[in-house]
Amino acid sequence: MGAIGQPVDRRDGPAKITGAARYAAEFTVPGVVHAVLVQSTIAAGSVVGIDTAAAMAMPGVLLVVTPDNALRLKQQKATAQTVAAPTLQDRSVSYSGQHVAVVVADTLDRALDAAAHVDVRYAPGAAVALMDQALDRATTPKQFRGGARPPDSRRGDPDAAFGFAPLQVAQRYATSVEHHNPMEPHATIARWDGDALTVWTATQGIGGAQKTLATLFGLEPERVRVICPFVGGGFGSKGNCWPPAILAAMAAKMVGRPVKLVLTRKQMYTSNGYRPRTIQTVRLGAHPDGTLTALRHDGVTQMSKGDFGEYSEPTGLASEMLYAVPNNAVSHRLVAVNQGFPTYMRAPGEAPGVFALESAMDELAYQAKLDPLELRLRNYADMDEHDDKPFSSKKLGECYARGAALFGWSKRSMAPRSMRDGRTLVGWGMATATYPMNRMPAKARVRLDAQGHVLVQTGSQDIGTGTYTVLAQVAAEALGIPVEQVRVELGDSSFPPAPVSGGSMTVASVGPAVLAACRKVRDAVLAAAAARWQPVTPEQLVLDRMVVTGPAGRVPAAELMPAGFVEAVGEAKPGDEKKHASLHSFGAQFCEVRVDPDLGEIRVSRFVGAFDAGRVMNAKTARSQAIGGIVYGIGMALLEETVVDRNLARIVNPNVSEYLLPVNADIPDIQTILLDDADAMSNPLGARGLGELPMVGAAAAVANAVFHATAKRVRELPIRIEDVMA
Ligand code: MOS
Predict the structure, then answer these.
(1) Long-range contacts of 78-81 (CB under 8 A, 24+ apart)
(2) Is 567 a catalytic residue?
């Protein structure tokens, strides 16, 4: 049996649990000095003066960077996907916590102390704290999806169809600002050697960081080396090259020493994005039998003030294709507020968008007096009606059936408040999951030596998902080598380039590049064997466990490597599959909650997720992603909310004690089913990616279970005790 699919243990596990794995802040760079950020205490206005004399007079202080003395960067071009956040280039302030100065000293303690003595004077302006205060000022995105498509879409006439529909749902749903909260804070060490820059930085994309830093400092990309062998989680927050990394490089250049800048947990709430708040209106029209005639999904999401680019949370995209419905429209709007810059967070768009859609579907099920799963089946989309294309592969029906069977869904009684365990209210809810298949070009280098050891190098990164492990499995299977003999090196921009670890695309992008490199290596060995055995052709030969076997006999591969090794760089990129098909993953989420009828305490007591994400590359890391996604969804449903003071426009819970994250006691036994059905159109490995899909729909399944338990329909997340108390 090949290595792909096996539940291979995480290769980076031992290094992580013994502390041997080095994260960005942990590299030893001789002569390093320490930088500390000074952050704005106002949310709008400008800095009118910064007195640095007291700080500069303190022991060990080397430099205070302010908007007055900061290096002028080459203009960072904002795109729809990359926000060019403020980097001390002017005195304007657009949110509380914006960086207004950087103090550099010989020790961290001295830098912290001096930072407290930088005297910043402000001219405060009027701030819009919350999106809800400015909904009348919504604007249309200018660069939705990077300009790849318009922010609105329509087929048929949903408004007319809605008016005629015997069954109608029209409701407003809202989700809160959420922060990613990876365990590892953002950290950068920057060192200049002449005009060459090396940064050790916590990032999901070493290639993007290299390009951004090269652009800002006016360097050729080859002059910037980005190193990041381990990442302690990112969830989207480490996708862009954010200001702290840029400011560390700037300070290092100004002070002429290597500089280390590590964010505090509190600074993690103001320096690297967040999931924006959403307010969404979903309207569903249906025949009495529950079949949809109209679907309209209008989403408004929060954006930051200031001329720093645009990020739109694409709340409506799943609503375009998830169900069969002849009349459909979605729209996306933005409201600018004086908060930091939003960004993508695990399943951006789908996570809040499918919460709204699948809550509305549950409401329709009750109007139609239909089991919620039966309603989904009656509206099953056999093709992507938005793209007008067949799905490359869609096993959602099997997800529904197998998930429902494992959960025991058929035993559900329809009426709310009809299931109890003693005095505890029990509720069962379900929802659909979907996430698009993403892929980008990638390259990888593979070396096979005469002893049968394989080295894989690629400029990808393992953000905790299992990239090290899965790429080793790909190489092992392709070269017929035990997986233990494969070493994978990631996280160095001097390796062949690979895309950002985002959009659940790493396996689908980088895996095929490793496969291509392995095939080149194998073909070189086979060609050498064929040359020896003429007229035998390489196609007649097999390389397995370092032996080439063919009609003329067997030869050790080592004898075919005069240099002692064979090495190749492989490249893989998407073809035209998206011209012919719609490539999406799917899943079904089933949740049981228990609610105390007197206290309103909500406990998730069971969860089943069944997912079709194409081929499963590693049964263990895949299950881990599925569980992690569901946990993220439970957090979204019941706990997570960044609270902003409506007067000061300042985050009041920037810490992990008051920003509630799910802990073990909040999470029940989660059962997962992974269909493991290769999608031949998706890429040569047949895997569609699993990082984000399992989060989608999870929050709706919880909210729908809460309705079933309590008869309270809660349309704003997180659901609180007071929402379900009579
Ligand atoms: Mo993910 S939000 O694409 O890092």
Answers:
(1) 78/307, 78/308, 78/309, 78/310, 79/143, 79/146, 79/309, 80/141, 80/143, 80/144, 80/145, 80/146, 80/147, 80/309, 80/310, 80/311, 80/312, 81/146, 81/311
(2) no
Among 692, 693, 696, name the best residue to mutate to test ligand 1's pocket (greatest count of ligand atoms within 8 A of Cβ).
692
Residue 58 burial by Cβ neighbours in a 10 Å radius (0-12, 13-18, 19+): middle
Residue whose Cα lies nearest atom 4 of ligand 1: it is 236
Q: Which of 398, 640, 692, 716 is labelled catalytic?
A: 692
pTM as predicted: 0.97
Q: Is the distance from CB of 83 to CB of 153 less than 8 angstroms?
A: no
Which residues partner with 448 through β-bridges?
454, 566
**Run of H or E residues at 187:** strand 187-193
Residue 254's identity, in one-letter code, is M
- How many whole angstroms separate alpha carbon 717 and alpha carbon 352? 9
Instruction: Please give the DSSP secondary-structure letter assigned to residue 88.
Output: S
Encode pLDDT of 112-162 as tens digits: 999 999 999 999 999 999 999 999 999 999 989 988 999 999 999 999 999
Residue type, 209: A
Q: What span, in angstroms and rounded, lies between the C-alpha atoms of 276 and 305?
A: 13
Question: Phi, psi at residue 709, to the nearest 5°?
Answer: -75, -40
509 CA to middle of ligand 1, Å? 15
The contacts of residue 207 (CB under 8 Å, 6+ apart) are 226, 459, 493, 497, 498, 499, 500
Q: Are 481 and 545 in contact, with CB atoms under 8 Å apart?
A: yes
Rounded to whole angstroms, the Cα distance separating 227 from 216 reads 18
Q: Which amino acid is at 500?
A: V
CB–CB of 500/439 below 8 Å? no
The tens digit of pLDDT for each residue in 221-256 reads: 999 999 999 999 999 999 999 999 999 999 999 999
User: Under a CB-based contact definition with an 8 Å cutoff, are residues 607 and 590 in contact?
Assistant: yes
| Nearest residue to 430 via CA among 708, 717, 169 | 708
Q: Are 536 and 552 in contact (CB under 8 A)?
A: yes
